[in-house]
From TrEMBL:
Residues 123-318 form the AB hydrolase-1 domain. The lineage of its organism: Eukaryota, Fungi, Dikarya, Ascomycota, Pezizomycotina. GO terms for biological process: lipid catabolic process. It comes from Paraphaeosphaeria sporulosa. GO terms for molecular function: 1-alkyl-2-acetylglycerophosphocholine esterase activity. This is 1-alkyl-2-acetylglycerophosphocholine esterase. SUPFAM superfamilies: alpha/beta-Hydrolases.
Amino acid sequence: MHIPNALISLLPLGLLAVAVRLPAPSGPYNVGFTQHIFNHSTPNDPTPGPGTSYLTSIFYPTRSSLAPNTSVPYFDPTSAAIWGEVFNILPADLESLETTLQWQAPLLSAKDDVERVKDRPTLVFSPGGGMNAAYFTSLLSDLASQGYTVLALDHPGEAPYLPLPYGNPGVVGWDIYMPYSDALIVEIYQFRRADMLHLLGPSGFPALVETYGAYFNTEAYGAFGHSIGGATATGAMDRNRNIIAGFNIDGGLFGDSVNASMHGRPYFMTMNPNHLAQDADSWPAFATRYYNESKTAPGWLDWTTVEGSAHLAFSDVALWVELLPQIPNTTAQVDLGNVTGTRMDSLLKSYAGAFWEFVRGGEYDGKLLDGEVEEWPEVVFNARVRSNGTQGY
């Protein structure tokens, strides 16, 4: 793990940092948050981590009101130093980011609230490669505020540093600048998929829900992810029919996810304009196969491009760079495109929210899901597949 001395020496300046809050969730509920470490061994784990467990962060709706200065911290000091170097942001400024998450806030208790949310699919999220799930907090919080239970997975040892709850020591992982070979990417996909399938299996989330007597849905799931997390969600869908829909956020398909069959389950894929320069084959082949399957079976697929975006703009990273000051006379070393962080944040929340609302059987927002709209001119539709036919493919 590489933490530059120059950045460490700047940490005392954090006393001057002013708290900056992520965009507020848009739903009717506040957001509770808890974490659980599941025991699950990864054979021949390639990471520096123990290979014996994974961390699940649980976002859920609550009616509890957030008290001042009690939200779940966004950054821990070690991670802030690591990621601050990449984006030329003082660690103290990254630590100043605030969430609206409430640690282990009470579950919904009013009968009307419980009835409204208990049958929504539980959404399972896998982050981009080498990234902590926490760096997608804005989107995950927003979905929870809409009434969904959201599970986000972290594999200890993959990200440069992963803080663990309940007094457990954090886990140091691969260096943030480590290059990824094609073979290693497939290995990452395989242990990510194994973690997700274990989480949805009898000894994972269902057992945890039974232990605590919660109303969370353990019969129907939605799977989604960013980058390699998109492949994780797709591969898990191929092996678990309780996953009723998938959302791939700018993620190429790897390993056996390339040939995953959706059996007509809804699938949304969105990418940056340069995606096909690195992944010329997997998305077009997937969409073609889905289209061919839809001729004889139900089907629903959207494939969009967000013009002006870049790969990391689909995460909270673009918000860090927009909302926080950079170290003077420096620029971010990673391309985030020319769409602002707050606009990308609103855009992704809008489309993800509309998609999951459709999946759960709620109101269908054809304005967003069926083609280009004036509100989001940067969203271009590459393909739409519908049951027993196609529109715009």
